[in-house]
Amino acid sequence: MRKDQDEISRAIGARLRRGRQAKGLTLGHLSRQSRLSVAFLSRLERGQTTTTLANLIRLCRLLDIPLGEIFRDRHPPKAPFSLFRRRDEHARERIAATGYNYLRLAGDLAGQRLDAFELEFPPGASRPMLLVSHEGEEVLYLLSGRIEFQIGRERFVMEPGDCVHFNSEQPHMGRNIGPVPARLLMIVSPSTADRGGLAWWNAPAPSAAARMRKRRRRRSA
Q: What is the mean predicted confidence (pLDDT) over 184-189?
């Protein structure tokens, strides 16, 4: 049975609240760690608002919750593989975020080292996408539409069938520049140095850029 957006938002919020309480954190503590306001976190936990993948991943990292855990109803046994059929898409609700909506495609495997999402960017989005960065690597494959993508200072246009693979510590962003919705397959993996699970997305980008500059200075010293 397909869930509506409100039900999904309430379920995600409840899992985040349980995770926060299990860590013994107040909303104020989590607000300071996540750089998200107390008011926003309160609405999120009550299912009264949605948020971006970047924010969800950041919260999961702080609360030690595997990312996939907040998207499922219960804890099924780890299967040897996960098969998602397009004809079953109607049974899954897309989740709204700032500037796009997304559908999780990955399953939940033992020792999971990557995650996958289909992002859909509506045409004519008025709010600009902010640069983000995270440890690890990212592969983006454009399924339909036209996307302007930025990595560092470089900007380029992606057409259907184009694919980009990059070190995602570099600040990056994408936006729809076409007249129809743009659909993008996003596959992400953490750094090989990160053995704690899918805890790899940190925003805003300037802090990551500063870390990269510091590392370069250390290597050149």
A: 90
